[in-house]
Design brief:
Elements (H helix, E strand, L loop, with lengths): L11 E10 L3 H11 L3 E6 L1 H7 L1 E8 L2 E8 L5 H8 L3 E9 L2 H10 L9 E4 L5 E7 L7 E7 L8 E3 L13 E8 L4 H9 L4 E9 L1 H4 L6 E9 L4 E8 L8 H9 L3 E8 L3 H11 L8 H13 L9 H7 L2 E5 L2 E7 L3 H4 L9 E8 L6 H18 L13
Parallel strand pairs: 1-4, 5-8, 10-13, 14-17
Antiparallel strand pairs: 1-5, 2-3, 2-9, 3-4, 6-7, 7-8, 10-14, 11-12, 12-13, 15-16, 16-17
Helix pairs in contact: 9-12
């Protein structure tokens, strides 16, 4: 455990769960169970569902919980979300040791509270307390909870018989990544209100390499609570071609800033990606040029202990990054609207990551993948993004 000078001051234990708003709860359940082998372990009871006008399913993968929420009645919170946004993450919940102390600290830091402290009981009759605050991520709220380790949220009845799934061994949330059109207000809020510190940053644009005013780029800053190791990665688009950036496109498609992806850590990414591809999960394609460059990049970065099968990584599209004999393997799914075959699925996606000593965020992959994609586009004669006459790009 870190000392108080190296913590957020909120007594964060770790991630509690995240809430994901969906249009069709049964469809979402089939997707997670059939495609990712993540099974529901509890469902909101009828009384609570009628009270809130929402249906909800609690799913678990390793030590990670998340709740899929769908509207039952017009005007409920999930219904209002779907009128403003596609499906996506609406709540990020952090578990704390002392809820009252966390609230006092947030009051001193001028947090904007959206609820009072709600005192409730879990399914076993134990105390379950929480409150929420607004964030610069538009409609995304942060929730703080205090409860027993293995308890279910209030009103969630266990699904019988329980299903032991997760054959891909998804373990924990490695990090949560959000996209905004301008980063500083959110980073300042994470520092000044949440008490987080900067962990890592990168700024990259393909024009830096190509020497001309095309391509696209981003600035990314990761903030963290050193005590709990909770990490929040955050991106903004860069000029030139600000509006051509994938970050700008996300915010436009999401109809506002929001959570771009959630990364699950796992011990065997090769087996997981191979298995998920067989169930129909689609991942982002990686051009062959990326793997042609990879041996040289690993050598340049002094990764001498790399023992992965390069042909398998190429076949599955798994990315590699690292330095000084520490590396990581990662891959990104396609967007939710493609995974769900529905435009309402939105631009959110998942990342799978396996760490072999590296604690960064695949910074080398930003540059290598951007370069490889553009080289592949040039080879195929794909035109660059058209300039925006209103932006001067």
């Amino acid at each position: 455990m870190q000392d108080k000078a190296k913590s957020s001051g909120l007594g964060i234990i770790g991630w509690d769960l995240f809430e994901y708003v969906v249009e069709d709860l049964d469809k979402a359940r089939r997707f997670y169970e059939e495609k990712m082998d993540v099974h529901g372990r509890a469902r909101l009871d009828e009384k609570r569902a009628d009270r809130f006008g929402e249906d909800a399913l609690l799913l678990s993968a390793g030590s990670t919980d998340f709740v899929c929420v769908s509207p039952k009645m017009a005007g409920c919170r999930a219904d209002r979300w779907l009128k403003r946004h596609p499906e996506g993450v609406a709540v990020l919940a952090l578990r704390v040791r002392d809820l009252d102390a966390a609230r006092r600290t947030l009051e001193e830091r001028a947090a904007t509270f959206t609820t009072p402290v709600i005192n409730d009981v879990d399914a076993d009759g134990g105390p379950y307390r929480h409150f929420e605050i607004a964030s610069p991520l538009g409609d995304v709220r942060f929730r703080f909870t205090e409860h027993a380790t293995a308890s279910r949220p209030p009103g969630f009845a266990p699904i019988e018989p329980p299903v032991q799934g997760n054959r891909y061994h998804l373990q924990v949330i490695d990090h949560v990544t959000s996209n905004l059109l301008t980063l500083k207000p959110y980073v300042d809020w994470l520092r000044d209100v949440m008490g987080f510190e900067e962990y890592w940053r990168i700024k990259f644009h393909t024009s830096d390499v190509k020497g001309r005013d095309d391509g696209s780029g981003l600035f990314s800053a990761v903030m963290w609570d050193p005590e709990s190791k909770v990490k929040l990665a955050n991106n903004e688009p860069l000029s030139p071609n600000y509006e051509a950036s994938q970050i700008y496109t996300f915010v436009e498609d999401n109809r506002g800033p929001g959570v771009q992806h959630i990364a699950f850590h796992l011990p065997d990414i090769v087996g997981a990606v191979d298995g998920m591809r067989r169930t129909g999960i689609r991942f982002l394609d990686t051009p062959g040029a990326y793997y042609d460059m990879l041996p040289g990049r690993l050598k340049e970065n002094k990764v001498t202990n790399f023992d992965e099968d390069m042909d398998v990584l190429r076949k599955l599209g798994i990315l590699v990054d690292g330095a000084d004999d520490r590396y990581l393997l990662q891959i990104f799914s396609v967007e939710g609207r493609l995974l769900q075959d529905s435009e309402q699925g939105g631009p959110f996606f998942y990342e799978l990551i396996q760490r072999k000593g590296a604690r960064g965020f695949g910074g080398g992959n930003f540059r290598a993948l951007f370069e490889a994609i553009e080289r592949d586009q040039e080879t195929r004669g794909v035109a660059a993004a058209k300039p925006n006459p209103w932006s001067g790009n």
